TrEMBL record:
GO terms for biological process: mitochondrial respiratory chain complex IV assembly. This is HIG1 domain-containing protein. Its main location: mitochondrion. PROSITE patterns: HIG1.
Amino acid sequence: MAEEKGTLQAMRGWVVDHKLRAVGTLWLTGIAGSIAYNWSRPGMKTSVKLIHARMA
């Protein structure tokens, strides 16, 4: 349990030190997830899929 708290504190410290990188990573993950979701939906043109992914 103590080791887990140490790891959590280390991760929190990294996020505090690298705020912009952390936000950018979360944003990029969200965009990638949105594109992956829209790509799995059949019957839409590629351009429409990209527009929908960008808006989400």
